[in-house]
Amino acid sequence: GEVPYTTLATRMMMGAWWLFALIVISSYTANLAAFLTITRIESSIQSLQDLSKQTDIPYGTVLDSAVYEHVRMKGMNPFERDSMYSQMWRMINRSNGSENNVLESQAGIQKVKYGNYAFVWDAAVLEYVAINDPDCSFYTIGNTVADRGYGIALQHGSPYRDVFSQ
Predict the structure, then answer these.
(1) Measured between alpha carbons, how far is residue 140 from residues 33, 99, 149 in Å?
(2) Cα(109)–Cα(121) distance, rounded to whole angstroms?
(3) Would you put residue 55 in left (φ > 0), alpha (ψ -120 to 50) or beta?
(4) pLDDT 10s digit of each residue in the chain, 166 long?
(5) Which stretches within 5-82 are classed as H helix?
(6) Would you say domain 48-132 falls under CATH 3.30.1330.40?
(7) Helices marked H in 77-145 — which ranges?
(8) Where is 165: in which H helix or E strand?
């Protein structure tokens, strides 16, 4: 036979064991359900080439900016024609640039936040926005259009020259 659980200590121990087992199984089931139902942000766009090849997500930049001119020159120059930039220029220049471009960078950032849009802009600015967004709704892709350094102008004989030169 069966061992009778007659003492109070044995009954309490078995009750605690079953309660523990119930909590563990419930937690596992809840975590599994949450894991399977959560929507994950997985984008197939990992580079500018990926962005240029797709047409589902419209993208643009600030009208008449350095980025706009860079894409225009690379996309239209017959001696330097790059298929990626040609495709990007076609998307950016829709309706003479008014459809997918914005007048200022803040408008592009808002368009990304509240719509289906990708904004091509200065990497430092976009990284700052992505890091400081309270909703964590921004992400940036890995590569940049053109690597450019930053310069700081100081007066001749400035005491800060050596500090910035290090």
Answers:
(1) 30, 22, 19
(2) 10
(3) alpha
(4) 566 667 888 889 999 999 999 999 999 999 998 888 766 555 678 888 888 898 888 999 999 998 899 888 888 887 776 788 889 998 998 877 788 899 999 999 999 998 889 999 988 889 999 999 988 888 888 666 666 667 778 888 888 888 887 7
(5) 8-37, 48-53, 66-76
(6) no
(7) 83-92, 105-114, 123-132
(8) helix 161-165
